[in-house]
Design a protein that fits this description.
single chain, mainly beta
């Protein structure tokens, strides 16, 4: 079985740190601290924010690994 490769920020190709914000897991670039990814609270899917709010209703672009 292959390991899942970690998500890296699109802005700096850096590690992403997750934190909980009002019920949504939000991932931020560890270089510039910009929010770049979330875990969809309804589906559990990792999704890129693409400049949108982590609390955007509906689905965003899924992270492909």
């Amino acid at each position: 079985m292959g390991e899942t490769k970690p998500i890296v920020s699109p802005c700096h190709n850096a590690k992403i740190g997750f934190s909980l914000g009002d019920g949504v897991q939000i991932g931020s670039c560890q270089e510039c601290y910009k929010d770049v990814v979330r875990i969809n609270p309804q589906t559990g899917v990792e999704e890129w924010l693409d400049g949108k709010s982590p609390w955007t209703k509906g689905n965003l672009r899924p992270v492909e690994r």
